[in-house]
Amino acid sequence: MKIEKESFNAYVQENVFNTITEYELIKDNQKIMIGVSGGKDSILTLHMLKEYQNRSDINFKIDAVCIDEGIAGYRNHGIDSAIANCKELDIDLEVISFKEAFGYDLDDIRHLYKSSCMPCGVYRRYLLNRTAYEHGCDRIATGHNMDDEIQSFLMTFARNDRNKFSKFGPVLDRIHEKMVPRIKPLWQLPEKDVGIWCVVNAIEIHDEECPYSVTSLRSDVKNFLNKLEEENRGIKRSIFNSFKDTFNLPYEKVKINTCTVCNQPTANSPCNACRLTEEINELLKE
Question: What's the start-to-end Cα distance of the chain, in Å?
Fold first, then answer.
């Protein structure tokens, strides 16, 4: 099927701009940190927020950060994409690595865990929040699309992890001075449309799957949903609309303290990142 570039771009922009406006993801005089991996989702987020900045009456600033996990033969391509797109859009970018922050590349510790996604997720979230706070940002924009949200919801549902249900949705509240809330401008945009936008506009992206992603539950859930969509077109949108319209658990307030090791916000001290680093140090001694 032939894609008409102008009308498709208008559809994508309207989808993202409507999400930003409807849920008030960005407010006047805020500073937004965009997490940029160099992949299609974060690059579209980067371009859409820059376009929204140019077209909107809202006055806000944009910074970007790229996390280098330390995956040989993979991450460098994403960093190159992040640098190229940020340069094109005149957005300041900081690149920060696991090695610099914690002393290890992900490649160094992958054998310690059944899934490398666990330590990667802990460290990435930590660095994203810390960097955004250090930059004086009010919100962190991530590239989570509609498919990502469905996958996360079903994974949380399967694990009966009720504490995480309150984290769904396009915007979170600020619950601690040092904890920067996240926004998801692509929240209502299907993943396939993100990919089509990049192709139609010949955007430079890092179009490779993480070599460690096959070890994750998310990979299995994603494949399952894609198979369902092939056999029942529109089922992803139906699942998304169902939980968006009907699933609303009350938010259970958690007291946020400060990590006694790194001074970052956490529910329990030491924080997950510091606890993980201590555990890794011990495992590598064995």
Answer: 57
Q: Has residue 281 been placed in a domain? A: no
The domain tally of the chain equals 1
In a domain, 170, yes or no: yes
Cis amide leading into 190 (omega within 30): no
Length, in residues, of the chain? 286
Nearest-angstrom CA–CA distance, 62 and 166? 26
In a domain, 94, yes or no: yes
How do residues 148-201 score in pLDDT, each as one tens digit?
999 988 887 777 676 666 677 899 888 888 999 999 999 999 999 999 999 999
Residue with tokens 């990979």: 219
Under 8 Å between Cβ of 104 and 265: no
List, in order, residues 6 or more apart from 53 with CB less than 8 Å away.
60, 62
Rounded CA separation 167/161 (Å): 11
Continuous segment of H or E residues that includes residue 86:
helix 75-89
- 261 belongs to a structural domain: no
Q: Please choose, from the candidates 141, 142, 176, the residue with its C-alpha nearest in 3D space to the C-alpha of residue 264.
A: 176
CATH of the domain at 45: 3.40.50.620
pTM here is 0.91
Distance from CA of residue 14 to its chain's centroid? 21
Strands 139-141 and 182-183, sheet pairing: parallel
